[in-house]
């Protein structure tokens, strides 16, 4: 018995240690997924291809351990990396996958982040779709009172109005976003807000304000090693200096910006730099160089335009596929839920029927048992009644016999009384007479005693005869 108990305790301890070990491993894997996703997101402005690589690793681990939030975030961050690599088709695929996961686990904040990302993706293709997604993100952010997400939505909506050339409206959104990021000390988005506001002031021809904001953004981006913002601000600063005729400054920022744009592998940004170089050469009247850059730009724009058209079609197709897949998944889930409901409903009804049948069977058995008991009781009562009838009949016979016997005895007693009165009265009368004669001295004493003795003997004899007659049942009379 002690050996069995010891074995059970050992098994329990081993199971507990094994379960705890599995939990610890799962927690480590979850932490690793979170860490990889954060590293991937931080690299988006510096090395977007590294963003995609790290997010893919996070996705593999998250899928292995079934960590839904990690899966959704890995898809989202991977989509951001593809967006900065100008791989729009891959980006929309990742975003829609992320959106499906976050919708499944009802993570509203993450859904809003994906809507922001999709809105940015449509920024160069479809302003209406871009605003639709960005306003969805803003509505959720305001509902959740998520300050950072509200600020990001403002910046992105401002980008749409900038591309629509509604500069004042864009600046209004940028200023609101900047105010939020300053309050929460979000350095990366402060840099983005500085750059965006600088671009707007440049387009409003306020060159001094634009230069101040763009240089501040450029400096902060270099301090944070954010290659993409550095390349973007350099591009705008170069255009600003060209407009002011400061060609040396423009050339300096162009050369530096080209290095950063190549580091982030952004072909569209490189094309924008070629256009800026064309403007710079044209302004300096280096027409031959300007013409060569113009030809390069034409080829790049044709490729980019074709790529954009193809990308837009692919995005729409991918979105349609994802929506169809999501609807199919929802229908499958709904069918599964309905099947489960039907199964449990049938199970409950079957259970209730079994209970009812069991109760009916039990009731029938109880009734049968009760009827059997009642039948036995009726038979017992009948037997008891028959016994009582026999006893009563026997008692009646006994009573009749006793009555007859008493009548006989009463008759004998009456006869005895009469006989005794008749038979004994004579000897008693003789005794009285003898006693009277003896008192008067008329009879001899001895003779008197003999006669009295004879009378007593007669009385005794009569009594003996009477007793014998009373005890002799064969005699009916005296």
Task: Give a verbal description of the structure.
- The structure is a single chain.
- By secondary structure, this protein is an all-alpha fold.
- Among the domains are: 1-106, Tetratricopeptide repeat domain (Serine Threonine Protein Phosphatase 5, Tetratricopeptide repeat, Alpha Horseshoe), CATH 1.25.40.10; 388-471.
- Helix content is 89%, strand content 0%.
- It is built from 15 helices and no strands.
- The longest helix has 154 residues, at 287-440.
- The radius of gyration is 63 Å and the shape is rod-shaped.
* Classification by helices and strands: mainly alpha
Estimate the global geometry from the Cα principal axes. rod-shaped
How big a fraction of the residues is strand? under 5%
The CATH level-2 architecture of one domain is identified as: Alpha Horseshoe
Summarize the structure.
The chain is mainly α and 478 residues long. 89% of the residues lie in helices and 0% in strands.
Features:
single chain; 478 residues; mainly alpha; Serine Threonine Protein Phosphatase 5, Tetratricopeptide repeat
Q: Which SSEs are present, and which pair or pack?
A:
Layout: H1 2-42, H2 48-65, H3 68-84, H4 88-104, H5 108-121, H6 127-144, H7 147-163, H8 167-184, H9 187-203, H10 207-223, H11 227-244, H12 247-263, H13 267-283, H14 287-440, H15 445-471
Helix pairs in contact: 1-2, 1-3, 2-3, 3-4, 3-5, 4-5, 4-14, 5-6, 5-7, 6-7, 7-8, 7-9, 8-9, 9-10, 9-11, 10-11, 11-12, 11-13, 12-13, 13-14, 14-15
């Amino acid at each position: 018995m002690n050996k069995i108990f010891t074995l059970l305790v050992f098994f329990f301890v081993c199971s507990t240690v094994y379960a705890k070990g599995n939990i610890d491993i799962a927690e480590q894997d979850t932490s690793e997924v979170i860490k990889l996703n954060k590293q991937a997101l931080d690299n988006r402005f510096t090395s977007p291809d590294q963003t995609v690589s790290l997010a893919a690793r996070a996705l593999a681990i998250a899928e292995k351990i079934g960590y839904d939030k990690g899966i959704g975030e890995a898809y989202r961050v991977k989509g951001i990396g593809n967006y900065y690599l100008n791989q729009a088709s891959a980006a929309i695929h990742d975003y829609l996958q992320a959106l499906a996961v976050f919708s499944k686990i009802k993570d509203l904040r993450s859904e809003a982040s994906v809507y922001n990302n999709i809105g940015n993706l449509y920024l160069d293709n479809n302003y209406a779709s871009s605003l639709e997604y960005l306003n969805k993100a803003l509505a959720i952010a305001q509902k959740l009172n998520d300050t950072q997400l509200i600020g990001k939505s403002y910046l992105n909506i401002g980008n749409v109005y900038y591309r629509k050339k509604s500069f004042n409206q864009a600046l209004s959104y940028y200023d609101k976003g900047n105010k939020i990021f300053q309050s929460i000390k979000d350095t990366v988005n402060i840099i983005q807000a500085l750059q965006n506001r600088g671009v707007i002031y440049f387009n409003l021809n306020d060159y001094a304000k634009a230069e101040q904001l763009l240089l501040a953004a450029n400096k902060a981006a270099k301090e944070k090693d954010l290659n993409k913002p550095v390349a973007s601000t350099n591009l705008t600063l170069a255009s600003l200096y060209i407009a002011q005729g400061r060609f040396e400054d423009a050339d300096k920022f162009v050369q530096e910006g080209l290095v950063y744009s190549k580091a982030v592998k952004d072909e569209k940004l490189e094309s924008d730099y070629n256009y800026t170089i064309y403007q710079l050469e044209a302004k300096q009247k280096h027409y031959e160089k300007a013409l060569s850059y113009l030809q390069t730009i034409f080829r790049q724009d044709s490729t980019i335009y074709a790529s954009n058209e193809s990308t837009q079609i692919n995005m729409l197709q991918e979105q349609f596929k994802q929506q169809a897949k999501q609807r199919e998944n929802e229908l499958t889930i709904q069918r599964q839920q309905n099947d489960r409901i039907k199964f449990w409903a049938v199970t409950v009804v079957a259970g209730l029927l079994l209970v009812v049948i069991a109760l009916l069977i039990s009731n029938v058995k109880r009734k049968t048992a009760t009827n059997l008991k009642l039948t036995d009781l009726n038979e017992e009562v009948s037997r008891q009644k028959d016994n009582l009838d026999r006893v009563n009949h026997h008692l009646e016979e006994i009573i009749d016999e006793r009555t007859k016997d008493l009548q006989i005895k009463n008759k004998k007693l009456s006869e005895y009384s009469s006989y005794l009165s008749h038979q004994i009265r004579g000897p008693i009368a003789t005794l009285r007479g003898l006693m009277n004669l003896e008192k008067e001295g008329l009879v001899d004493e001895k003779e008197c005693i003999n006669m009295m003795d004879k009378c007593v003997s007669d009385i005794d004899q009569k009594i003996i005869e009477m007793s014998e007659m009373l005890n002799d049942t064969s005699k009916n009379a005296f």
